[in-house]
Amino acid sequence: MNEIFHLQQDIQFTTAETILEFSYLLSAVFFVVGLKLQNKPDTARRGNLWAAAGMFLASLMTILLQTDKQGHGIQNLGYIFLSIGAASIIGWYIARKVKMTAMPQLVSFFNATGGLASAMISFMGFYETSLQDKGTILVSLLGILVGAVAFSGSMIAYGKLEGKVGDIRSGLMKYVNLLLLAISIGFIVVLMMAGSVTPTVTWLMFGLLFISLLYGVLFVMPIGGADMPVVISLLNALTGVAAAFTGFLYANYMMILGGILVGAAGTILTIVMCNAMNRSLLNVILGAFGGSSGAQGEEGGVIKEIQPSDAAVLMAYSSKVTVVPGYGLAVSQAQHTVHELEKLLESKGVTVKYAIHPVAGRMPGHMNVLLAEADVSYSKLVEMDDINPEMEQTDVVVVIGANDVVNPAAVDMPGSPIYGMPIIRADKAKNIIVMKRGMGTGYAGIENPLFFLDQTRMLFGNAKDSLQKLIDEVKSL
Amino acid sequence: MDAVIQFLYAYHQEIFIVVLATFLGFELIASVPSVLHTPLMSGANAISGVVIVGAIIYVGHATDWLNILVGSIALFMATLNVTGGFVVTDRMLEMFKKKKTKE
C-alpha cells in the first residue's frame, strides 16, 4: 500500500518549518475571517484588525522561522527591520494625517506601493530561478507585468484624483494600448525561451518592465472622472493578482490565498460598479463615452433659478427632504455643511435622507465615507434601490454636485449614451433643487433634462457656499 | 505543450488553492453593502500587501548589496501598503463605529 498512499514517514521536516506553515494557515484563516467580518458595519472594524493581525503573524513568523533549502535562516535582519520600521512609521503617519477628502488618492497610492513591491520581487525572483523551470519563469514574468501595470496605473489614478493629471482621450489610444499589450506578451514569450541569463535577457527584462509601466500609464490615462470607481477597483484586483503570482514564486499558499481573495474582491467591486453604470468593463477601458455626445440635440427648455431664501422656505416647510450627493460635494468639501443643514432641518421636524448612487464620487462607496466623516449616521444613507420607490412622496430633492446619476435621459431617451444606466429618480420628486457651479454638462457631456423640468430650480454657486447660505436662511426663518 | 503540462503538474496544488480562493473570495464579498465598499476595498488593498512575506524572504537570503538594496525597497513598499492600508481602513471604519454608539 505504500506505493499508493502518500505515506509521510520518509518526508524530511523540521519543527520550525511545520510551525511556520501552520502559522501561514492561521494567517490565511485570519484574512478570511477578517473579510467576512467586513460585511457588516458593526463588525467591520474588528474584521480589519483580524486581517492586520494575520499579516503581523505571517511577517513575524517568517522572520523567526523561515529557512532556505540549506537550512539558513533569515539574514540581513538590520535591513529588514529598517525597511519595515521606516515604512510602518511613514505609512501610519500618512494614513492618519491625510484629510478624509483625499481618501481615494490615498487608497490608490497604497495600492501602487503594493503593486510595485510585487513587480520588484518578481523581477528579482526571475534571476533566482535557474531559468530551467518554465513554470517559475512564467510566474515571475506575469508578476512583473501585472505588478508594474497596477503600480503605474494606480499612480496615474492618484495623479488624476489629485487633479494633477488630466485625461487624454483619442481614438488612437486603444490601438496603442492593444499594441503595447501584444508587445509585452511577445517579450514574455521570448524570455520564456531563454536558457541562461545573458545581457540580452537582462535588456529584455528591463524592456518588459518598461512596457508594462507604460501600459499602466496609457491604460488609465483616457479614463474619465466618473469611471474612476471602476478603474480603482480593477487596479485593486490587479495588485492582488500580482501578489498571488509572487506567492507562486515562493510556493507560499498564504500569499496566493491573500492575493486571490483581493483579486476576487476587486473583481466583484469592478462588476458592481460597471453594473451601476450599465456599461461593460471593455466599454469603460476603451473609453467609448463622451466623444459622440456632441451629436446630442440641445434640450429645449428654460432654466429656472432659485434664491437661497426661497429654497430655505421650501425645505424648512417640507416633511421629507432627500439629498443626492455627488462628486461636487467632495470637491467643495461641503460634507460638514450639509450635515449641519440636515440637523437644522431635522430640528424643524423635516425627515432628511441621503440617496447614495453606487458610482457617485470617485471610488466605490465614496459618498458613504465622506458623509460618515461628517458624522452623518449611516442609517440615513439610503441605497438607490431603496430610495427610488419613496421618491414620489418626497417633497424636495436636493442634488448637490451630482449630474449623470440623476439624469432621466438614462430612463426615457433610448438614444442617449447613458440610456439604461440605473439612476436615482430625482425627477419623480415634487420639487427639485439642483446645486451646481454652472451650466456645464456632467462627465458624460450629456444634457440633463432634469434641469429643465417644471419642478426643478437651480441654485448656482459653490456647493459649500450655497449650503451655508441655506443654513443662514433656515436659521432666520 | 510539454511546458504547459509541466507547469500544471508542478503547480497543481497552487492552482487548487487559486480556484478555491476565487470562489471563497466571491462568496465573502458578494454580500457587502455599498456603505462599506470603500473600507472593504481599502482593507483588501492592505491584504494585497502579503507580498511583504516574499520581500522578507528575499532580503533574508540576499547576499550582494544590489539584491539587498532592491529587496529592501520592495520590502519598504510592501510594508507601506500593509501599514498604511490597515491604518487608513481602521480610520474609515472608526467613523462608522462612532455613530453606532451615539444613537
Order of helices and strands of chain B: HHHHH
Largest sheet of chain B: none
**Estimated helix fraction of chain A:** 55-70%
Assess the beta-strand content of chain B as a share of residues. Answer: under 5%
* Helix-strand topology string of chain A: HHHHHHHHHHHEHHEHEHEHEEH
Shape of chain A: elongated
Count the strands of chain B? 0
Work out the oligomeric state of the chains in this entry: heterodimer
Number of domains of chain A: 2
Radius of gyration of chain A: 26 Å
What spatial form of chain B do the alpha-carbon principal axes imply? flat
Q: What is the beta-strand fraction of chain A?
A: 5-15%
Q: Sheet bearing the most strands of chain A, described?
A: 6 strands, parallel
Alpha-carbon Rg of chain B, integer: 19 Å
Give the mean pLDDT of chain A: 85
* Uncertain stretches of chain A: 288-298
Tally of DSSP helical segments of chain A: 17
* Overall domain count of chain B: 2
Tell me what the structure shows.
The complex is a heterodimer of chains A (477) and B (103). Chain A has helices at residues 15-37, 44-65, 77-97, 103-128, 134-162, 173-193, 199-220, 228-249, 253-276, 281-285, 308-316, 327-331, 335-347, 366-373, 384-387, 409-412, 463-476; strands at residues 320-325, 351-356, 381-383, 396-400, 431-436, 456-460. Chain A is of the alpha/beta class. Chain B has 103 residues and is mainly α. Chain B folds into two domains: 1-31; 36-103. Helix content of chain B is 83%, strand content 0%. The relative contact order of chain B is 0.10. At the A-B interface, α1, α2, α3, α4 and α5 of A face α1, α2, α3, α4 and α5 of B.
Features:
heterodimer; A: 477 residues; alpha/beta; Rossmann fold; 2 domains; six-stranded parallel sheet; elongated; B: 103 residues; mainly alpha; 5 helices
